[in-house]
Amino acid sequence: MTQPSYAPSPEPHTEPVMPGLGSDGHAVAAGLNDDDEDEESTHPRLVSDIKDYLLTHGHLLKLVRFETASRVPAAGVNVSCHPTRFPRHLFTHAKSLQPSMNELYIRASIDENWLYNVLKQEIESDPVGLVASLWDVWVKCREAGTLQRVACGIVRSDYMLLATDDKGDVSLKQVEMNTFSAAGACHAEGVASMHRWLMRRRLAEMDDADTSIQPQLGDLPSNANTASIVASLSAAHNIYQRQFLNGRPKCIIMIVQPENFNIADERPIEYGLFACYRCEWRDVLARIHLGPDRELLFQPSGSGEGKTFEVSVVYYRAGYDAEEYSEGIGGRGIRLMLELSRAIKCPDVKMHLVGMKSVQCALATPRVLERFLPDSRHVDEVKETFVEMHALDSSPAGLEMRKWATNPENAVNFVLKPNLEGGGHNIFGKDIPTFLSEVPAKEWHRYTLMRLITPPAGTDPGMLLTSEEVYEGPVVSELGVLGFAMWRVPIQGSEPEILKNEAIGWTYKTKPEGVDEMSVVKGYGCFDCPLLT
Amino acid sequence: MTQPSYAPSPEPHTEPVMPGLGSDGHAVAAGLNDDDEDEESTHPRLVSDIKDYLLTHGHLLKLVRFETASRVPAAGVNVSCHPTRFPRHLFTHAKSLQPSMNELYIRASIDENWLYNVLKQEIESDPVGLVASLWDVWVKCREAGTLQRVACGIVRSDYMLLATDDKGDVSLKQVEMNTFSAAGACHAEGVASMHRWLMRRRLAEMDDADTSIQPQLGDLPSNANTASIVASLSAAHNIYQRQFLNGRPKCIIMIVQPENFNIADERPIEYGLFACYRCEWRDVLARIHLGPDRELLFQPSGSGEGKTFEVSVVYYRAGYDAEEYSEGIGGRGIRLMLELSRAIKCPDVKMHLVGMKSVQCALATPRVLERFLPDSRHVDEVKETFVEMHALDSSPAGLEMRKWATNPENAVNFVLKPNLEGGGHNIFGKDIPTFLSEVPAKEWHRYTLMRLITPPAGTDPGMLLTSEEVYEGPVVSELGVLGFAMWRVPIQGSEPEILKNEAIGWTYKTKPEGVDEMSVVKGYGCFDCPLLT
What we know:
The first copy, chain A, contains 18 helices and 24 strands. By secondary structure, chain A is α+β, with helices and mostly antiparallel strands. Mean pLDDT of chain A is 88; it is low at 1-42.
């Protein structure tokens, strides 16, 4: 016997509060709810199995506001309790398109004139904004001349299913392309493993006659996201090592946000790599130095003792917020030093820039795809995944759309997205005209109008464990395809030399129907595993 | 970009409270402490690396009082930040003694007359106590006749170092033998892996000239506790499967406490086994049934649908508290049904009984060891690990000791332990006379006096992450050797047939010097890894 009994204290406890993640993604305090047991009572075993699986496998979010010197509490990431159906052929199709998606964005990033034209209005109108900051970094790099022509990127292309008729026919539509700091890979792998474990158990418990008509393990696609990202970063590291044979030890640097609550989506990558160190964005200038040959030098101990490493690859998991480029923390200088260096960037600043919504919109305009992918046999298939998008800029077409979008009848089928990369801050349907009426017209160019992807009416109700509740009801899912590419930027012209280009994994998230955003960290979306049908 | 910035909120936050584990092992609320950053500032990287490692590998304790329907927060188990020195030859020696320790306790458990004599006073004086409850279960099993002669046990023998002179010479002394529900194996393995990771990184960062004089990875012993326990339970399962070839699917049942905060020390064993189900102690009679041939039958779904399993092995991780045997929950009936069944018990009720302190005391009296281990060449070595122990019973020697113990000058070198199994509830040194003066003399037989093991003065200060603080100062460690044995109980006589008998792993815990108890779950002890010297 080595454990004391740990039954909950019998007296009523009104004082302690439960830390959770609020709707703004921040830890909040919420009173214990006596109804909780009732909510859970219908599926007590499944829910408790899932809670314990997440805890024992570290698929958690830190409750950073409750951190003390010696410990930090954490709670399970949002998950779906059952795998959610997804058509097998579209899952395969999405993966098969990834090399073309990668190539499209690589080529867009290399065509500087095209890219500048797309981003120009944003750069000129907001010189301290994110886009202008990144463009400024790029211009300075171009002036200094590049010492590293190899770049790489870990990207994620997100898709939803669009109902194309009333009979259940669906097609695959791209929500967005994340070209910078794509997250969720490690959690996605863990939750996929959890669903395999749950299904294996369920099948083992069934009467043999029933098992044949049930979903099988083969209906859950395999997932090795973490090992794939580790292999991808290692490939870049190996190229750098061959480029610079100077006997100095090399390491990968993961640039991270301070007090990050989502380290469970970063640390497994670090653990898998031979030599990878984390450096917080704000500490970059103090901890990493540019050597005489523009090599990046890093000393893990920080104390003047021990080895100095030369950074082979800069892997960004920070640097996506406009505030990170503020004067106060020398933000632009941080990015500039890293980009000027001869390290391989994952990704470089131009691949970051093509992740903006305005670029996604521009790529969807006629003949652009044909221009960037002249030899691809997938042009039509890629185009097929695009939905209607409109810039609200000051071009004649843009001005036309501005008028059109203020009509509630038109707006109801659209979503208004700020011209940033990633999700969030979107305005949906009927809220668009009111929102635009409150924004000065000279700032409308900062938004892109995108047709809403209306998913098919769900057949199975879902069951989701969110930070707030056990949700049971209709759900909507989003598939993310992870891609990796490595390329050599041409000295002149527009032809990159593609060194690696592949789909390396997937993420899958599910949310309650009727909730607009898919963000897991904001408490809506839940990691899930597709049940291929 | 898929993560929002998550900097701590700038406004002061007085409302949220931080869940931690209080000194009673219960979750408590404690205000955020502004001094925390200062405390941490000397070793920020090491502490943050450890916090993240525990979180991402699931070496956590549940904060059960803060559980809601959809999630449960958790925080890292207590750990030492550096491996703590331990003599290599004594580590090896402790492991080599384990088969003899296992055999000693097996033989004591089989010698019913001897065991009854040791426990008689406790059984007779407190008929609803733990010992009487267990003995009653055994008597009823004996009357019913046993259908399963194979038993097994996963045990843990705990040792401390005793300073034998002023020059640093030390010897190995046994603190106790845990024969029931031995815990800590999974955490111990995880923390050992963590220390290997930390050391590998530290060595990789050092200048090459320095690495040769540093501790090496070979100084950290390997640990595969979880796989070893899984293999041990599987071996018992396989024996049962060969015994009862009836075509019914078989499973292992892990009997667990409700609302257990330490599931991270149980679940990994379940995940490793092919078919293992958890059943809470209080649910046993509702979920498990005794069939006509005294086979234990279990249906995982509990709904009447799906397969019914026959239980091969009952693995106890509950049933060590006297309260668990109370009338209210039918406690004795729970244990009786499990013990009466033809399942293999891990361990059986008599192996449970020999874990009492009074048995440890009796085994240390002259000529007992020679009687139980007549053929062992390790008798002297086993005896060498025993420390002076005295029963406070009503025998002439016991009465003598009672008088002696009330003298503070004598008591100061002893610890008074209740005749239960496991640690905790101990009275130390000068507190003993006062304590005894408050206990009616007729209850003194419930305690055993044991000489304190005075460890050598520590050479290196330790650094511990406890639930309360980052402790830096002198520390004391305790080595646990995990053993597994499987034996066939003789129909007559005292010769068990030993089927398996081995050391299968180790645990290592470190606490601040001056703190009496080693309990990790109560917030004192910290999981650690020996640095073999």
